[in-house]
Amino acid sequence: MVVSLKGDKEFEKLLSVKDKALRINLNDNIYGTFAEIGAGQEVARHFFRAGGASGTIAKTMSAYDKGFSNAIYGEEHDNRFVTKSRLTKMLNHEINLLENRVNRENNPEKMFFSFANTVATIDFAKKFKGHGWMGIKFQTDSSEEYSEIQMHIRFHVNDAKTQQELLGIMGVNLIYGAYYKHNKPRSLIRYLYDHINPNSIEIDTINFSGKLFKDVDNRLISLDLIKNNMTQAVMFGPDGKNILPAAELYKKNILTIRGSFRPVTKVNEDMYEKSLTIVKNDKNFNKKNSISIFEITLSNLISDGEVNEQDFLDRAQLLCSMGKTVMITNFQEYYKLSEYYNKYTDKKIVLTMGVDNLIQVFEDKYYKDLNGGILEAFGNLFSQNVTVLLYPMLKKDELIDSNNLVVNNKMKNLYKFFKDNKKIIDIKDYNKKLLKIFSWKVLENIKKGKKDWEKDIPKNVSDLIKKKKLFGYS
Question: Which CATH number is associated with domain 8-216?
Fold first, then answer.
């Protein structure tokens, strides 16, 4: 049985949190369990209070004790409890119990669901604001396979009770969205903030999977999180699946290359490889504890005032084909990127950039909105664990590097200070033959159907552009 969406647009305007829970409760065929760890049973509470819950709720539980939780869901290899792995185990365990304990023959139209969350609210010292995983595994037809929505949230309020209340509201919004908005997942993520101040809670990753979402590209969902100001940065791996930035960055050494990658050229490849060689030469380098990231800013995706989604997917596909981890951010300024990384790691952070980028870094016009101006920005950008690796450029056949680049007169002494203290280091072992390659020129040649563009980009990239007809290739 498929849930009817008829009249939703008009009905939606009237729905409070209670109305949403009640509508779920009054649907005779929606039936499932709630398993909540770490922040009370805030989501289930809304359904009990709405009325009519006896036909909807099979069971609620809250295995707060860690040993008891492990006995039910199994131990995690890292002994952590607020993880994606724990959420997945909870969802699967509870749905399996439903399948085993409820006779399908007597309930042919029941659409099962399991909702779960595992959360750490703000600590007593208020040092860590709290975060959690939340998800639902559900059916919209009793005879079909399950679909899933899993997401990670991060609190931005400093009160545990308020965090619990926010969790409860967002949980109701998620369950309601799963049943009544699943056909519009990109709208669904906006409805998750119904009755919630967007500044109070952040969604920094979300994944849709299963039959209902077989045509959903989770990379576009990630892009929507940035566009809708639900988070500052999203990340996806070489397989194109969304991953949690905090988990990937946690206590890691980080190498980042920012670019348009439109398309990826041999210059980008050389920047990365030469930077990686420098990083690996550090005596403390540990491959298992390091991550390389290709970062694209949201402003770099905007064309004519709008984000060009196909162009974004083309770039993402090429980077993923090269085995790269990609991060999309709304950090136009480098100091914000550095500040973001430092929230999750105290290890080494290496930012690889070209000469033009570094010159812009030393333009004070970008820091006028900061109370501390450029000094505050540089305190974040060039913090103790951050180094800039500078890739040279050719300008009218003159090689420009850290020794002869020209910055604003007011910034010369500041620039000299960071250079003398080895916060800015030249990449010397570069391939000079590549310095005349520019992404914009390659893109222009692709669109014009010229042949010589292929020599300027990696072969696997050119093969994929031709095979998938990317960037206007025909």
Answer: 3.90.950.20
